[in-house]
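Model it.
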Amino acid sequence: MNPITNYIASYQIKKIAVLPRAKQFIKITEAKSIGLVFDATDKQVFEIIKKFIQQLKEYTKNIHAIGYVDENNTPNYSYIKTDIDLFNKKELKNFFQPKSLYIKTFMEDEKDILIDANIFGKIPLRYIAAASRAKCKVGMHTSSNEMMHNVLLATTPEQGLEFFLQQSLKYLT
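Modeled.
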């Protein structure tokens, strides 16, 4: 990745992250809608997310996940289209901004909770998390996430996605 392009994309994300939105801590038991962003490049990660969505459905039925596939084509995973949308590199504008209408709708929808499961910091997913109008945003504690999330979890990529998701569930209940 070109360092200049990366710098410009990070700068744009910082500008978007500070835009005003209605912030509020909402317990998962009180949430009416939950959004989730994740890296869907690896099929194992995709399967972990599918299981996590089933766990979330114990709390609310309105769950929508957006997965980014860091390739030019989207693999044909088996999933329920109403719960998960996938996008790939071909669906990005300049500086890694997603251009699909369904992603724009996802960002503008004022969800109760957004769980940012982008543990490796993929720029298109960071852009979505920053632009999201969600009332309560949860993500991994990194310096770049401090300005855009309400709840920061002290986890690391080395601990894995499953650990992050279980910590999210623990602290949101």
